[in-house]
Design a protein that fits this description.
The protein is α/β, with parallel strands linked by helices. It has 16 helices and 27 strands. The chain has 2 domains: 31-358, Rossmann fold, CATH 3.40.50.12780; 467-567, ANL, C-terminal domain (GMP Synthetase, Chain A, domain 3, 2-Layer Sandwich), CATH 3.30.300.30. It has a 9-stranded mixed β-sheet, with helices on both faces.
Length: 569
């Protein structure tokens, strides 16, 4: 499929494209179909490794079909929504593509999300089933008190391990976990067995049918589901490979970015699966264990958020790494400072790598990255140039009018990875996806940036109020709502504060109601209250009591004043 070109749109970056084709032909099938193509071309290539176990593409496709049969036996059909609340594991991979194979939609949710957040995502998507780890069964008992969920599938890490690894897991991690009891769920293995005799289960969707729902903040900073199509993911996969001409089937990607995140799902997983790549699935890690994974697996490709690279520089385990295996190192999910890029490039060079970090930029509204620093040409402070068939422009904020090169404005983009829209939010979809005078529909990102005369893009800051910590989006208004539901809290304001490791950490300012006095005990009680509804990564790391909070002329809390105070400390 050839995406229509945009002759009316300026594209100065095409003069700098080097060996990259500016326009591509795209696969018009489904996500599962793309993996099946890989299996036909590379049946014996390793599709993934996981804690000592591995599977070829031939085996992966067989597992996807078994899972699709099991889902069908459970009563799940085309058009249904299935919540996948899992870390990076073989079951996550298999379930994602099996859901697609039967024509259903995968609703991707962070397994460490708070109960209220998971319940919201299930309700919002209309999910009829969910899969999660056995260790989260207790959390899902609470989730089901808040929403209807007909089917719950439980699995365990040990379900994906070899016999020897299962024993080791059970003697260490597994014995710490109570085994769920009850009849309100089905075990993964039982679901697979129940589907053994199912024959009619495949439903091939159209390229533009919704395939997945990912969550982001939209243009207002309030969490919303984003409908992404088969074409969105398949186009991204083609674009990523096209802009990395060194890639060869069998190249290894260390997949540490989680599959509920566009960066992890789109780049680390689907791009590899659609191209014959070899994924090393990592369910959890620390900077110390990350260094060990680099040493053990010697991947060709690594992708992460800037805070991950920052943390790796701080652990002594990284000192002895030999990294000549690397073909590509990609940074996204947050701004990579010029200083950190220089430090990490020096680290790579001193450990045998012949590559440098290449920064990209994107939004979940376009799956993930839509812009990447070219291999052959980089500019300091730039986030790179648009992918093939993707167009960027900078417009005056609040308008659709393009500004001159070198002028700051709102970043807008269009191309084959552009979302179908927000789930249950038609007005915000219309506010975000706007038709311009050139006749094309553009995503207004809510981010400030600039384009130079060669088509390099520079990110400046976020227009929408959002905190990014360790690559995760945190929405201050949601946390403020939770804080202000505490009986002692009158008013609150949440901001992002600069952090050397996370880039930003969450800080809360609280005004108490009359009759309450600040104390360490009250602070602890308020934070405990937040833990019931706020994901661990979004929890305030600091809580400061204030007798008053600054206000704007119209009476809103002036969060920018607090940001400036913290920045000047």
């Amino acid at each position: 499929m050839m995406i229509p070109q945009a002759p009316m749109v300026k594209a100065p970056w095409l003069d700098n494209y080097g060996d990259v084709a500016p326009h591509l032909d795209y696969y018009t099938g489904t996500l599962a179909g793309a993996v099946e193509q890989s299996a036909k071309l590379y049946p014996d290539v390793i599709a993934y490794d996981f804690m000592g176990s591995s599977a070829t593409y031939k085996r992966l496709v067989e597992d996807i079909h078994r899972c699709a049969k099991g889902l069908t036996a459970l009563g799940i059909k085309a058009g249904d929504r299935v919540t996948i609340c899992m870390p990076n594991a073989p079951q996550t991979l298999t379930m994602f593509y099996a859901v697609n194979l039967i024509g259903a939609v995968a609703n991707m949710v962070h397994p460490l999300s708070a109960v209220n957040e998971i319940a919201f995502c299930i309700r919002d998507s209309g999910s009829v089933a969910a899969i999660t780890l056995d260790q989260f069964y207790g959390k899902f008992l609470e989730v089901r008190k808040q929403c209807e969920l007909p089917h719950l599938i439980l699995t365990s890490i040990k379900d994906a391990l070899s016999s020897a690894m299962k024993l080791g897991y059970q003697l260490t991690e597994g014995r710490k976990l109570p085994k769920p009891e009850g009849s309100d769920f089905i075990w993964w293995k039982d679901m697979l067995k129940n589907g053994a005799k199912v024959s009619d289960y495949r439903h091939d969707m159209q390229a533009d049918d919704p395939a997945a729902i990912l969550y982001s903040g939209g243009t207002t900073g309030t969490m919303k589901g984003i409908y992404l199509s088969n074409m969105n993911f398949n186009a991204l996969a083609k674009q990523v490979i096209a802009t990395n001409t060194f890639f060869r089937p069998g190249d290894k990607m260390l997949a540490i970015m989680p599959m509920f995140h566009g960066f992890g799902l789109g780049v680390s997983i689907h791009t590899m699966m659609a191209s014959g790549g070899h994924c090393i699935l990592i369910p959890r890690f620390t900077p110390k264990t990350y260094a060990g994974l680099l040493k053990k697996h010697r991947p060709n490709l690594i992708a992460g958020v800037p805070s991950l690279f920052e943390a790796l520089l701080r652990v002594p385990e990284a000192d002895k790494l030999e990294l000549s295996c690397l073909k590509g190192v990609f940074s996204g999910g947050d701004s990579l400072s010029v200083e950190l890029k220089k430090r990490f490039d020096e680290f790579l060079a001193s450990h045998g790598a012949t590559v440098q970090v290449r920064e990209g930029y994107g939004t979940t509204e376009c799956v993930t990255a839509s812009c990447l620093t070219p291999i052959h040409y980089a500019k300091e402070g730039s986030i790179g140039q648009p992918f093939p068939d993707t167009y960027y422009k900078i417009v005056a904020v609040g308008t659709t009018e393009e500004v001159p090169y070198g002028t700051e404005g709102e970043i807008c983009l269009t191309g084959p990875t552009m979302m179908l829209g927000y789930v249950n939010h038609p007005q915000e979809t219309a506010d975000t996806m706007k038709q311009h005078a050139d006749g094309l529909t553009w995503v207004h990102t809510g981010d400030l940036g600039m384009m130079d005369e060669e088509g390099f893009i520079y990110f400046r800051q976020r227009i929408k109020r959002m905190i990014i910590t360790n690559g995760y989006n945190v929405y201050p208004s949601q946390i403020e709502n939770v804080l202000e539901s505490h009986p002692a809290v009158h008013l609150s304001c949440v901001i992002g504060v600069k952090d050397d490791i996370r880039m930003q950490r969450v800080k809360a300012f609280v005004m108490l109601k009359s009759g309450f006095e600040p104390s360490d005990e009250l602070r602890a009680d308020i934070l405990a209250h937040c833990e019931k509804s706020v994901a661990r990564y979004a929890m305030p790391k600091e809580l400061e009591f204030r007798s008053e909070l600054p206000k704007t002329l119209v009476g809103k809390v002036a969060y920018r004043v607090l940001e400036e105070e913290e920045a000047n400390k």
